Amino acid sequence: MRRPGLAALALAVALAGCGVETEGRARRVNPPSGVAHAWATPTPPDAGTGAVPERLYLVRGGELVAITRHVAAEPAVTQLVGDLLAGPTPREREGGLTSALRPTDVAGVQVSGGRATVELTEMLDGSGRTDQVLAFAQLVCTLTATPTVTSVMFTHAGQPVGVPRADGSLSQAPATAADYAGLLDR
Predict the structure, then answer these.
(1) Does residue 11 form part of some domain?
(2) How many domains does the chain have?
(3) β-pairing, 115-120 with 151-156?
(4) Is residue 124 within 8 Å of residue 150, measured between CB atoms?
(5) Which of 56, 92, 155, 160 could form a disulfide with 97 if both were Cys (CB 3.0 to 4.6 A apart)?
(6) How far is CA 162 from the centre of its chain?
(7) Residue 75: which domain range?
(8) Quick one: pLDDT band at residue 20, thresholds 50, 70, 90?
(9) What DSSP state is assigned to residue 183?
(10) Are the CB atoms for 126 and 170 separated by under 8 Å?
C-alpha cells in the first residue's frame, strides 16, 4: 500500500517542476497580428430583436444551415449579402456556425426580373473546392429565400462565370436553391 502513495508523491513533485515560472507582476500579452483565417470578419451585429425575419444560410459541419435573424425592416438584397459577408454573430459562432464567404468575395448585387446577378471580386480557380461550393450555396440559398429572387447568376468583370454546384459540376447557368439541396442540414 505504501508504493502507490510514494508513486503519487513522486509524480506530483515531478509535475510541479515542469510548470511555467511565475512572475512577480502581471504583464500584457499582445495577440498575434493578421487575420486568424481567410474568412475571419469584423464582428457582425447580434441576431437582433426587430420584427422582420431575415433568413440567411451559414455553414456547420460542411452543411448549410438556415438561420433567422430579426431586423427592423425588410432587408434589401444588398443588406442580405452584406449581412452574409459579415459572417455569424458571436452567439451563432458559439453554436458552431461559420461562413465559407470572405468579406471581400462580392463586389455588388443587382436584381432584375427575379434574377439576382452577383458580381465577384475575383475569378475562381475552377477547382470546385468544398468551401467554394458552400460559399456559392450560401449566396444562392440566401438570395432565393426572398420573394424577389428566383435564381442567381454570377459574373466577374461583367462576364458570366461558371460556379460549382453541389454535385461537383461547374455551370454558367443561373443557380437556384435546388442546385444545393444536397448541402442543406437535415
Answers:
(1) no
(2) 1
(3) parallel
(4) no
(5) 92
(6) 21
(7) 52-183
(8) very low
(9) G
(10) yes
What Å distances lie between residue 179 and 33, 98, 118, 138, 142, CA to CA? Answer: 39, 21, 16, 12, 13
Residue 24 lies in a domain: no
Within a domain: residue 1? no
Q: Which three cell numbers stand for residue 34?
A: 493578421
Distance CA 36, CA 55 (A): 27
Residue 110 host element (H or E): strand 106-112
Helices (H), the chain: 2-17, 77-86, 90-94, 130-144
Could you tell me which of 35, 57, 15 has the C-alpha nearest to residue 144? Answer: 57
How do residues 150-176 score in pLDDT, each as one tens digit? 999 999 999 999 999 999 899 999 999
In a domain, 126, yes or no: yes
Q: CA-to-CA distance for 13 and 7, rounded, in angstroms?
A: 10
Question: Residue 164 — left, alpha, or beta (φ > 0 → left; ψ -120 to 50 → alpha)?
Answer: beta
pTM higher than 0.70: yes
Residue among 63, 108, 53, 62 nearest 85 (CA): 108
Phi, psi of 43 (to 5 degrees): -65, 120
